[in-house]
Amino acid sequence: MTRSTISYPGSEPGRADGAVARFGKALRLQGVVVGALIMRELHTRFGRENIGYLWLFGEPLLLAFAVAIMHAGAKLGHAGGLPTIPFVIGGYCYFMAFRSIASRAESVIEANRTLLHFPRVTLFDMLLARAILEGAAIIVVFAVLLVAAGIFGLADPPGRPLVLLASMGYLVWFSFALSMVVAAIAARSHLFARILHPVLYLSLPLSGAFYVMAWLPPALREIAVTLPTAHIFELSRLGLFGEFRSPHIDLGYLTFWCMGLTYAGLILLRRARRNIHVS
User: Fold this and answer.
1) Which parts of 152-227 fold into alpha helices (H)?
2) In whole angstroms, how far apart are CA 108 and each of 46, 77, 160, 193?
3) Residue among 102, 90, 59 at smallest CA distance from 208
4) Cα Rg for the chain, rounded, in angstroms?
5) Distance CA 109, CA 268 (A)
């Protein structure tokens, strides 16, 4: 007596392997597209004159270094004695990454409109390329400044490196998701594009870049815990300082914000693409 087998549509091994192969091929193709967009962005913004692509790191490096020097004499001992230099370097570098990714999204459509002739190039790819470029540059600057501070005895190695990497991941994810929303709205409203930059600058005191939630009075802390950026900065300090503890970090809340913005951004980008005419 033979045992019969029942097969269901899509359950055949060959069909499943084919789907995986197609997905892998599509993923590699998108990687090539994003890589090409990154190289185009580098060449468009920095060219090959003077130090060329190194300006990607040079500009934020000079700004972060200047801010760190200005705060070198500050006293942060009232919150557990956090070292000033790495505290300021981390806060400013993270905020620069957030601001750069979000603010540059406003011009991504106009700067790359002609690329939409190619069906493989999407608005999502353009924004992803810029987010990777800006995020990688600021992370490299942060690492360089942190190592330099360590050489001069002004900073210790990160106390929890994996937590610090997780905070960087959340930073880029949140900033990229917000950039999709920004690009879609900016495509419809020139007024929004004009007020975006001052609003981002004014958000610096509220973002969490230069405070820890434990320092705040209870009334202000209730406001701060509603800001997703404050959780990202708090998480970065948990990774940077081994002695730092914080009961105010809510990864579930932060993930909810990132996923919600990502979903909203994808929907808004699809609608925006329908109204973009490529001449």
Assistant:
1) 161-186, 190-202, 204-207, 218-224
2) 16, 43, 36, 11
3) 90
4) 22
5) 13
110 versus 175: the higher-pLDDT residue is 175
Neighbours of 234 (CB within 10 A): 24
Q: What is the mean pLDDT of residues 259-279?
A: 86
Contacts of 144 (CB under 8 A, 6+ apart): 57, 61
pTM of the model as a whole: 0.83
**φ/ψ bin of 9: left (φ > 0), alpha (ψ from -120 to 50), beta (otherwise):** beta
Distance, CA of 22 to chain centre: 29
Average confidence score pLDDT of the chain: 81
* Cβ atoms 56, 66 nearer than 8 A: no
What is the per-residue pLDDT for 3?
Answer: 47
* Whole-angstrom distance, CA of residue 107 vs CA of residue 210: 28
Helix, strand, coil in percent for the chain, rounding step 5? 75, 0, 25
Q: What is the pLDDT of residues 240-262, one digit of tens each?
A: 998 888 899 999 999 999 999 99
Domain borders along the chain are 14-274
User: What's the pLDDT tens digit per position in 139-177?
Assistant: 888 888 888 888 878 788 999 999 999 999 999 999 999
Beta strands in the chain (DSSP E): none
Give the closest residue to 173 by CA, choosing from 63, 50, 256: 256
Length of the chain measured in residues: 279
From its phi and psi, is residue 158 left (phi > 0), alpha (psi between -120 and 50) or beta?
beta
* Whole-angstrom distance, CA of residue 164 vs CA of residue 157: 11
User: Which of 245, 217, 211 lies closest to 229 in space, CA to CA?
Assistant: 211
Angstrom distance (rounded) from CA 126 to CA 129: 5
